[in-house]
Specification:
The chain is α/β, with parallel strands linked by helices and 261 residues long. The chain has eleven helices and eight strands. Keywords: Hydrolase.
Length: 261
Amino acid sequence: MWIDSNAYIGHWPFRQVKNSSCRDLIERMDANDISASVLTNINGIFYKDTQAANKETYEEIRFNRKWEERLIPFAVINPVYSGWREDLHESIENLGMKGVRIFPKYHRYGLDLPACVELVKRCRDLEVPVGLTLRMVDSRPSSWLDISNEWKLSDVMPIVKAVPDAKFMVLNLSGSTHLETEDLDLFKKGDVFMDTSGRNVLELRGLMDTFGEEKFGFGTHSPILDYKTGALRIASLREDEADAQTRANLQSGNIKRFLGL
């Protein structure tokens, strides 16, 4: 079984993104033998009211009830927006969202913003994870309207330190993964999950040795990135680097445990 921990629907305003609907995602999953996908609506990054994108996701999944068994939606919440508390409640309690994604770079706030800390604490109390993405797209060929400064793993530490008992997903490891000793110890103790989509997941075995095998799992960051690289990083592990159980955990076991599936 394979579960994609990092997939998207929706449109990117600065480049053409194909395969942007739930139907497209299901077709990709079927073609690649993927059992389930954690998905986020890209539109929520750019809508002034992110809840409109969350409702789009909800309505699209409801279009085909069979999709509910395979699609695991996360809500995009913007703590700068005045109605974010109501959005969070509606998303988790009424729309059935299984987690929250935040995009501080695009919504223009720091992870030390009091409302951001409050949001993460509320997610902790609701027992749902908060997802952070180190990079959405490669800034080098991007539009001048898009952001150009990307995150390193150390950049997410302020919110991890502020709410160390929350659940975090750190996705698309595209910047440096180096952490100072104190931060590394805190990160390793935390309930954190990272996916295999990022360009810096070149030595997956080394990253697992540093952070822990249980913190990693298959992710694609599709359709922005390709659908194969995240899986190949698991498949390419040598026999002395990963036994059958470790591979099964990377393919689906770790994300199932993390999300309580």
